[in-house]
Structure formats: structure tokens, C-alpha cells
Amino acid sequence: MKVIICEDYASQCSAGADIIEKIVREKPDCCLGLATGSSPVGMYQELARRCREEGLDFSKVSTVNLDEYIGLEPTHNQSYRYFMDTNLFNHINIDRNNTYVAKGTGDIEANIEEFRAVIAGSTVELQVLGVGPDGHLAFNEPGKELYWHAHKETLDESTIDANARFFASRDEVPRYAVTMGMGEIMMAKRLLMILSGANKADAARQLLMSDAITCSCPATLMKLHRDATVILTRELADIIGYTA
């Protein structure tokens, strides 16, 4: 696993954008796996700037996202479809028909089957990842077991607490989500984690400073991947005592 330490969030986002830009320029029709959350927002903004000002072309790119809340319409301002549209897709020249975010309303079992089929039919060149404070990847929560395929996940109380800041009240946070499975995440050719924030210290410590691979911290499965990169800020590296 390759680890890159950046001096601040801006340089972290630029480093992540460099990796994605190289893939897009070398393979214009690539499929990118994307993530939501606060960590990749700056990277998406930088990619949009490069599209607008430097000719980075997303017109042939396709995307598939990791997850979606159950119960939120795509137009809801906290749905992950809305997040992707407002933070990236609306600002680059991508064909919206080539972007996929799982459906969180309607027939959930049918949505999961569709999600699995889309993943199976996609060769993801790079999967962007964030990590929860408890070490979850996508919405694969810590527990006794993890799942290979896309599935319905019950969100942990800690995840609900962490996401409550985005809603008017904690009671409005969805309790369930549709998420890509760990096996499907690991099928991507490359993994790229954007890791920042003091609240991620425990997850970062388990990922970077322990040899253990455990279901209690799903992020640790990244250690099994043949081409995984973690970009973290100097601040977080200092907090956990990590040196490259």
C-alpha cells in the first residue's frame, strides 16, 4: 500500500486529482468508482477546475458510486445522487447517462439487483474511498462479517451520529443504505483513499500502523489490494504518529 503525506487539505486534493487526471487522459473512456462525504469534495472541485480551465475531458468517462441512503429521493439535498450532481457532475462535461448512483427508493431488492449488475458490468479503473470514524468503507459497517456483493446495510449508531450534522436533526438521518460490497470494492484495479480529519485517527491508526486485517475495521481490507494508495494530511499523520 502506497502512502502519500500532504501538508494540507488543498495539496491532498491536488494529489488525488493528479492520480485521477492521469487515468482519464490515458484512458478517456475509463470507469471511475466514486465516493461521497466531505473528504473528496475538494478533489472533485479541483477536477472540475481542470475540466473547465485545462481541458480535462470527461465526455467518455463513466462512473459508479459506492452507496446511497434508503428512503431519500434523488432530488433530496442529502441524497448521494444530489451530492454527486452538485459537487462534481454539474461542473464537468460528463454524460449524465454514464453516471450511476444506486436508487434508494422504490423496490429496494430490485434496486440492489440492478446495482450488482451495473458493478458486474463495469471495469473500475480506480475506486475513490473515504473512511468513517469507525473504519467503515462505503456503508460496510464494522461487525463479525462483511459481504462480497451490494446489499442493504443497517447503519451503526456512530455512523448516524457522524452524519447527523448534515440533517436538520438526528431523527432525520436514514437508518439504512444500499452499499457496494467489500468484494466488489476490492475488484477495482486501483484504490484511492482520501484520509483527513482528527475524527478519523483511530481508523487511520488501524489502517496504517497495525498489521491486523479485521472486520471490526473494514478499511483494513485495503491492505490486501495490489494497488492501493492512501493520501493523508500531515496533521493526521502527526496525530497518529505515522511517518512514511
Report on the architecture of this protein.
- By secondary structure, the chain is of the alpha/beta class.
- Helix content is 33%, strand content 18%.
- It is built from eight helices and ten strands.
- It has helices at residues 9-26, 41-54, 80-87, 108-120, 157-163, 182-186, 201-208, 234-240, and strands at residues 2-6, 31-34, 62-65, 67-69, 99-100, 124-129, 151-154, 176-179, 191-195, 228-233.
- The strands form two sheets. A seven-stranded parallel β-sheet has the order 1-10-9-6-2-3-5. Strands 4-8-7 form a three-stranded antiparallel β-sheet, with helices on one face.
- α2 links the parallel β2 (31-34) and β3 (62-65).
- The longest helix has 18 residues, at 9-26.
- The termini are close together.
